[in-house]
């Protein structure tokens, strides 16, 4: 498991695009949108240039999961994407991502964390609800979410400070 930004290896970028394709193609297809790997790769390159950070969880040479977030300012983050490989959905991968996210939040103390999810992505909508994010807008087939950094930190500390 690592947290990376900037000098991203091409292999990681390709693995991220592939994981996005696996997970997002059916969701986008329901909305009449075709997943475009080249566009996603260009978007990722642009996001990396702007300072996107990544938590990557590997199982061997398989990218089992990742979390991408963008510090918008010193005290505000935007979660760009969280993806879990279907082969690892029933494993402890989400916990591994959250443990690293917890460390990042402890180190940087954002005041606000924003995120979004396609309305038809039931697992993402459920995850946001479970984490305590509140819906702040509902448009273009997406929910936009917000949570205070302290609330998210509290959620994670209840999990990880128990020693579980």
Tell me what you see in this structure.
The chain is of the alpha+beta class. The chain has one domain: Aminopeptidase (3-Layer(aba) Sandwich), CATH 3.40.630.30. It is built from 5 helices and 7 strands; from the N terminus they run βααβββαβαββα. A 7-stranded mixed β-sheet has the order 1-2-3-4-5-7-6, sandwiched between helices. β6 and β7 (142-148) form a beta hairpin. α1 packs across α2. Mean pLDDT is 91; it is low at 1-10.
What's the architecture in CATH terms?
3-Layer(aba) Sandwich
Question: How many angstroms does the end-to-end distance come to?
Answer: 18 Å
Summarize the biggest pleated sheet. 7 strands, mixed
Extended strand count: 7
Brief summary of the model shown:
This protein has helices at 10-30, 37-49, 93-108, 122-131, 149-160; strands spanning 2-5, 53-59, 62-73, 76-84, 112-118, 134-139, 142-148. With 164 residues, it is of the alpha+beta class. The chain has one domain (2-160): Aminopeptidase, CATH 3.40.630.30.
């Amino acid at each position: 498991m690592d947290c990376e930004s900037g000098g991203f290896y091409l292999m990681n970028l390709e693995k991220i695009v592939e994981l996005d394709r696996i997970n997002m193609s059916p969701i986008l297809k329901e909305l009449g949108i075709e997943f475009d790997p080249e566009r996603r790769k260009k978007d990722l390159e642009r996001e990396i240039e702007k300072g996107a950070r990544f938590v990557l969880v590997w199982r061997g040479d398989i990218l089992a999961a990742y979390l991408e977030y963008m510090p918008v300012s010193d005290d505000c983050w935007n979660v760009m994407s969280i993806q879990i490989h279907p082969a690892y959905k029933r494993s402890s991968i989400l916990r591994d991502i959250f443990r690293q996210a917890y460390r990042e939040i402890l180190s940087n103390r954002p005041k606000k964390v924003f995120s979004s999810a396609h309305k038809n992505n039931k697992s993402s909508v459920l995850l946001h609800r479970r984490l305590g994010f509140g819906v702040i807008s509902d448009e273009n087939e997406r929910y936009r979410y917000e949570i205070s950094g302290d609330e998210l930190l509290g959620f994670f500390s209840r999990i990880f400070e128990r020693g579980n």
